[in-house]
Amino acid sequence: MTNGLVRGCGILFHWRVILTAAVVSACLVLWFGTEGVRGTDQYWYLGDVETLADQNPAVTNIVYPGKLLREAGSDSSANYFMHHGPFILVAAFFAQFSNPYSSWMWLNFVSHIAVALAIFFVCRTHTQTPIAGWVTALYLVSPIALWQSLNMLQEQLYAGCLAVCLAGFAYRANLLGQVALVAALTIGTLSHPLFFLLANCYLVYLALLLLKAPQYGRVLGLVTVALIFYAAQAFKGVLFPSSFQPDLQSIIAGAVPGVSNMLWHQSDSLDPVSLSLLLDKLRFAVHAHFLQPRNWPLYLYTNLAIVGGLYLFVLRLRVYREILFAACLCLGAYVGLLVLMQTQVRYQQIVAVATFVIIGLTASDLRHLVRPWQAKTLGVVLLGLNVGIASAMAVKARNEAQSESEDLAVARASFAEFPADARFLLLDVSLEAELRLSYALRPRETLIIKSKFLSPTGLQSAVSIFGPDYVVMDEMDAAVLFARGAVLKKIETGTMGDFFIFRAE
Q1: CB 137 within 8 A of CB 117
Q2: What is the mean pLDDT of the chain?
Q3: Burial of 387 by CB count in 10 Å (0-12 exposed, 13-18 middle, 19+ buried)?
């Protein structure tokens, strides 16, 4: 009987059974949680996808004062999408056959599976297959991965692109692997600055191979790939025009820990980039990752990968060689993103493939320290925690999407009586409210202002340039700047509070 019980447990905890259970669990969580749009930035993307799906130019109705003030006295540029790129175009294409939210959710799901497949096959080339299966199962139900799959954000799509990059590098001996790697890095370069860094690192790798074994074919390949990457970088502004920060300096200075990550858009002046600012961002990132207990479940796997990656890189680099270097490079790029831009939980999903590959390599390297039954017990516990946390997140996403949908309907109905060419100023409302209200106001142009980030002169100038017809605030004091007369309309919502519409002064 004891032997039968052992065999039963062995079958139950076999990596194939665990991986299958993880796939089923992930699908159930995603099926339950995909109720609709929620949050903040998602309303940017929802509006952008709807715009392109309707065959309109890549222009948003949201205006920020920084752009108005920088272009004052000159020919102003079009008010392009904030985060334009290939993935928004793909989502808009599929939205023509369903709807923007559903098309994005399917892209998230495909990316989620692509990351899982990359983790499994990359790990399997450098570790034992059971370890690859267990690590992939942990990824499939990891809270951040499922949370990003439930939200209409680009991080999961970036993650899928990076997964193809790392898998292509791992299988670069195959022509298909090389093509996939170059294609993914090119698409990534058109999408996010992190990929152009990785593209340049790949060019350095190709150059080193060329120095070791000079060949005409390798020279031609290096030149061709370099031209592809730099053409993508040079023409991405033409192919996908965006209102995002144009250079590294504005990216760094535009995000200050504890203040805002929108200063380049909201302010008329930025503090210069300094070492103290970079150190502040680093301290903020370290504190968020390691020193806030409430964040530990969310950063668990990234933190494990950081520690494991340092161990392997220092002591075992010769064993795992290029694949470890590539994975650590991706993780290092993530750290650089935190220091140069800002710390956000969702950013770690971009490098999820590298995170779990490093965890797989570390688990393989240290497997002699624990017995198989102990490792499997730990794995089952982690899987259970993952599913529990992810399920709670799915409930949260579902409830918030339902509540926000109701409030969005109320806001749209309240704005329906105003002309489509009316201009609105959203003055000092919360981030959640400003993006939802600006979406509800489409196609009416909407200036979003946080007065605390503008000088009195800059504030007056921005409003004067924009020339609003109406002002929306979350207080009904008609004496507030730029508002004139009595309240025209009151909007009552459950998730954002109440808002008051005034005629502009």
Answers
A1: no
A2: 92
A3: buried
Pair 119, 167: CB distance under 8 Å: no
Which amino acid, one-letter code, is at 402? Answer: Q
Measured distance CA(426)–CA(470) in Å, rounded: 9
Structure tokens at 503: 């005629």
Cβ atoms < 10 Å from Cβ of 35: 17
* Separation of alpha carbons 35 and 39, rounded Å: 13
Q: Which tops the pLDDT comparison, 202 or 483?
A: 202
What are the contacts of 376-382 at 24+ separation with CB within 8 A?
A: 376/13, 376/134, 379/18, 379/134, 379/137, 379/138, 380/13, 380/18, 382/138
Angle, alpha carbons 457-461-466 (nearest 5°): 155
Q: Which residues are paired to 427 by β-bridges?
A: 449
Question: What kind and span of H or E run contains 412?
Answer: helix 372-415
Burial class (CB in 10 A: 0-12, 13-18, 19+), 405: middle
Pairing of strands 424-427, 446-449: parallel
State how far the Cα of 111 lies from the Cα of 187, in Å rounded to an integer.
Answer: 14
Number of Cβ atoms within 10 Å of the Cβ of 391:
18
DSSP letter at 416 equals: T
How far apart, in Å, are the Cα atoms of 266 and each of 101, 154, 459, 466? 28, 22, 10, 14
Is residue 31 a contact partner of residue 397, using CB atoms and an 8 Å limit? no
pLDDT tens profile 299-341: 999 999 999 999 999 999 888 999 999 999 999 999 999 999 8
Confidence bin at 270 (pLDDT 50/70/90): confident
